[in-house]
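dumping the sequnces here before i forget
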Amino acid sequence: MVEIYLGGYLNYFDRGKRSHFTLAISPKMGLIEILELLEVPSAEIAFASVNGELMNVEITSVGPDDRIEFYPPMGGG
Amino acid sequence: MGFGTTGKILRVDLTYGSIREETFNETIYRCYPGGKALAGYLMLRELPQHTDPLSPGNILILATGLLTGAPLATTTRFTATARSPLTGAYGESEAGGFWGPELKMAGYEAIIMTGRAPSPVYLSINNGRIQLKDAHHLWGQDPDKVQTKIREELGDTKISVLQIGIAGENLVKYASLTHNMRHYNGRNGMGAVMGSKNLKAVAVHSSNNRYSDIAHDARALAELGKRLSKQYKDHPQSWALHEKGTMPLVGGLNSAGMLPTNNFNSGVFDGVDNIRWEAFDKEILVGRQSCYACSIRCKPEVQVDGRYKVSQKYGGPEYEAVAGFGSNCGVDDLQAVAKANELCNRYVMDTISTSATIAFAMDCFEHGIINLEETGGLELRFGNANAMLQAIEWIARRKGFGDLLAEGTLRTAQTIGGGAVDLAIQVKGQELSMHDPRGKANVGLGFAVSEIGADHLVSMHDTLFQNDKSIAFQGAKALGIRNAFPATVLNDEKVEQYFLCENWVSLEKVLGFCYFGPAPRSFIQVDEVIEAVQAATGWNIDLEELLLIGERATNLARVFNTREGFTRADDTLPKRLFTPLDAGPLKGVTFQYKEFNDALTTLYKIKGWNPATGIPTYQRLESLGLGWTVRESGMQENG
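..and the predicted 3d for all of it:
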């Protein structure tokens, strides 16, 4: 299980409109695969962090108990 | 059938108590269709050079946008414009809500207030009857009492009351205007200008008119409005504004390493979990309110009955106030932040400038530039919520040290000396909004070049354009945005993107759109904005002409500043932003002087301004139909 946080408007894409939840994943699953699983378009990700460290969405894999945060571009206002 | 405007302006001479109407023709409106453009036109035509902002000679213009009051989501805004007492420059502040639509329905595009009433008055525009009425009994009263009393006196429970608070009465340099106790013309000290005129309130209501009476094609406009009212749910950004307002910015910007913290000393706040959206939602949010005809309903209502008591009657804090009184003052107590916001709303002061001024004072205190003796016993350390709340009270009442802070960061810094100017996070005298431009370079360019001083709503934030497949980027392509770049990059193409988006945002202020309506920030696409203007006016108008209107409006303000003595030297950023961020994902990131100055030169060239002086060239002004401004302002024709 990993902990997922969808910041800003990203929970719009989740079917249950969830922002903060746990997710069962396959071993060494990549962030891109997690986004695909959640049906969140990767183009909407401005940055992602794993356990508080910013990570490259394209190449990062995660493991059990990791906390993964995704954030969209933030437009101000 | 009309062209989207009533064609009428109301002139109120407060010195003599005279009121008269004036009609402008369609040719004028096509060049200056409303809001920022109309106000800029009137400012340059009517305000003498070097007028003291708080003298009777200053004029206060309240102008609706072209589409304000149309049956379209997010077309609610009006501008308050005058020479700013905070900056000495062109002063401008927009608000949404209901007052703008009411003024339009009452039959006016704008009100121009001149002079100073011999004693406090309020202006009533109520179903065709216009009066100046005594306001002695309202002076010094809180907004809820003022609103209730005016509604009782006029026998109209629906009249929209735009008013100043005691901060405006006390000429606090960043006093605001509020109406219906929810909506604020926050920036640039328009409340002080209104207070200097002994004008407590302007109440407006008209029950007989509708925007469709002045629209060219009311049916087309109504159909577009119906479409848009459903469309917002299908766009992630407007959907999120409906669900959460602007609060997700707190956690997001902190994770990105650019949440203003301790007077912009850092971009990462240790106490962020106590003030972010999730805590806000769980602990203090009790409801949402909307502006006129807007389906997004982004405005939060909060209530607190705990360490502090916060009433719902003044609405609730949005991102700027939470970051301003939270992370930027080092305060991680959301209840204290909500209380600070309530006090500002009660006294009607800009939450951005108030919080930034207190954060600056805290920085001075921490550096030993000021001490307890000078602050009158206020221990203004980062994180001291009670000192922060006390400072707000003192500022509004101009009591003790608050009297100095009421002048804003720049004047306070100049008065106390000792290197304080380096800690004043301001441009042209106006405090920065809660966005650290070291993480978004074009926002920094906007802070620097903005005619009204630092503000976050002068262009689009470049964080939106980092991925060319994103929804925001797709929405910007119609404006000419071609390539994606990291937000920290400041190259020539990014500068051009700034220019394109500045014209678009300026146009929003002309039309009366909220920043949260049109793309690329939100859901109303560029072609739908054009469609709205065409339906309202009947004009065969395209994007090119609309963007020129936006650019024209910006240039009017620029010419105003030029004649008041502002130059390229004023288009800069605080010294702190040229030092690297100390922690977090953006550790080490900073503006470089050369890179910044090169970008400024590039921007001037794109805008047709003299690269050495920053003054618009005659050729550019002439091509914008503004040659008259050179002749009337005494500017040199070669810029």
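Chain B has three domains: 8-213, 246-431, 441-633.
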